[in-house]
Target: ISLre2 family transposase
Amino acid sequence: MESIIADIVKIIKSENNVIAREKALMCYFFDLIRELITLALEEVDAGLVEETKKQGYQIEKKNKRSVVTAFGEISYWRRRYACPGKKAKYPLDKLMGYDKYKRYSVLAVKDVLQVSAVATYRNTVLAVNTLSCFKISHSQVGKLIVQAGKQIKVQQQSEERYDGITQKKKVPVLYLEGDGVVIKGTKKRLEFHRYQVCEDIINLSNTLIISNADGSAGYAKKDFDEIVGYCRQHEHFLDVFHLNKKIKDRLGFMPAMPSKLISAVEFKYDRHLTDVILDTIESNLIDELNTPENHENLKRLRSYLHRRWVDIKPFKMRHLSVIKAIGCCESNHRKYTYRVKGQGKYWSEDGAEGILRVLTCIKNKELEYWLSSEFAGGQLDIGDQEDLKGVVRASLRKTHEAHLGIHHGAIESLTAGHSYLDDFGRKINQINI
Model:
């Protein structure tokens, strides 16, 4: 300790510039941390020898490895073990979660992903290189996002994640919303689909399903019926945002009429008044307004309203004994669209899926959970996990106190992928309705 303090005092006295002094201190502390971590890892590796040999393994050799962690790049020596009929392994790497052929630790990856969720690759590089103790390039950021997206996808789709569920969750009210977004791809347009789930706590004996969508392909009431299956009651709503937009777009040639039609449709929900307003608009298509395009727009709007009239019925007129918790799907798109659209962005399929899964995990506050999960897509199989836990307990018995771990259980409510209906339906089936 005295030598460390002496080194710090020496650095403080040797630098006159305040920025240079702080930089020198920061470099000294990070170098010290890396040196201590290296020594600690080699000591832990030595403590794993006895338990690993009891499993029939023998030391084959010692190899050096470098890993970029949240506190910089560390290099350490660890033992490789071999056993006839079994794969060779590095117990220390498995203990620390340093996957084979991967250069970055899980925490370093998590930090990079969180920055990349709100910034472009190059801005992510600027932030990471400025504020962290390691350097990274924009191409490496892209690779980390793709790798993380694939890992999260495999683990989210693994059936093993449901192994611990002995009883399906019962919910009295379930709110479902879904929508799709089109983004630019390097080869073609790409489309991703989002569903979000909201639960109420009203005490009902059976489940009431309340769904909300824009009515486009894959988001009609029949599609939600297919996902949900049997339920006590299903109330489907046509999203008000898209309804208003449709009316305003179709009646752009007559600016004074959209507000009147919206009032008749959404607030008064009067079918006769709606038809009267549409007939009035049609009768005013004279002179310069009398064009095939305007007639076609009006015809399509009339057909649109008639087809979806049941779904347009306002929430307050349905006399439901629950709160209104729908209509926010479109606004929640912004976290995704602000990141993947605009500014000349083009995405590969792997890159788009990777960043969307990362954004989804951050939205659900599950990024750390999925990056550190050990389902079928993880690096450890069940047998290895049990063996490793025994080794770790033996090596850390003197310094580690047992503690109660976190019991995690969640519905993945926001997903992005190609088979979105199948994927979402499988998750909804875990809820007992």
